[in-house]
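Kindly draft a sequence, keeping tokens residue-aligned:
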Amino acid sequence: MTASEHISPVAIVTGGSRGFGRAASAALLDRGWTVVTDARRACDLAATAAEFDSPRLTTIPGDVTEPAHRAALVVTAIDAGPLRLLVNNASRLGPSPQPRLADYLAADLRAVYTTNVFAPLALIQAALPALTGNGGVIVNITSDAAVEPYESWGGYGSSKAALDHLSATLAAENPGVGVYAFDPGDMRTEMHQAAFPGDDISDRAEPESVVPALLRLVDTRPTPGRYRAYDLLTVAADA
């Protein structure tokens, strides 16, 4: 075994302090990956780092909409080893409860698009040379609201639709990198609760139950495209 084979692959997972990002980071660490993750809330990120207690986890508090923060994520990841995975998980729901498009303030919509479209693309642009050189994978977390016109989901849904299209175009332009839009489905997360204030969402899936679908996507590297967790898990169950 060569020295290079001892170096664990590196993943950037944005929004890793809670929800799906936290669950994905934990699973990757369990598989021997080195993970670089972030969150806007430094206290939540510190608590996650303390609980995981892994030398292969690096946490960087900050906002993915800020260029200096994105640069820090990429530089830290590249310094840690071969960057082979970028999971653009950090998202912004928008106002809660969500307004109809006729009432959506331009400033609020701009903030949603900045986090859900412009920041992921900018992070991809920064990480793409390393991911290309390492034959890496990009996973952009999307939503069924990107393809279904749910009432009051126009702001968030349209931002994820834009992310879907960016993913498809990036895949066409970069055949050496696996680029996927990944729809995890409804999950029991803080953001999903904010979308339904006051409702009981205990029937939604725990994020940890969805992570195997993400791992299957990374492991099998199917044709680039848009994939639902439900479909990936069903295929795995039938295999």
The chain has one domain: 3-238. The radius of gyration is 17 Å. Residues 1-5 have pLDDT under 50 and may be disordered. The CA atoms of residues 17 and 45 lie 5 Å apart.
